[in-house]
Amino acid sequence: MRTTVDLDEDILAAVEKMRAEEGRGLSEAVNVLARRGLTVRRARRPFVPQAFDMGAAKIDLEDISEALGKLDALAAK
User: Fold this and answer.
1) Into how many domains does the chain fold?
2) Model-level pTM?
3) Quick check: 15 and 7 in contact, CB under 8 A?
4) In a domain? residue 23
5) C or N terminus of the chain, fewer CB within 10 Å?
6) Domain containing 16: what range?
């Protein structure tokens, strides 16, 4: 498909570098770089646990349903 696009200076520099180093044509270099951009896996944001003051709450971890109930009650405050 033929189309006209305006390339930012940094993109044009990457295209020209690839053309010079690998002997590719303009369209081929743009296509290769675009495909690379499509296949790059985005870094996920790291999980950040949320902490809150539980005060003097004591939770017996032997009874999971009771512990979850108390934690839900604390989170709702």
Assistant:
1) 1
2) 0.51
3) yes
4) yes
5) N
6) 9-39
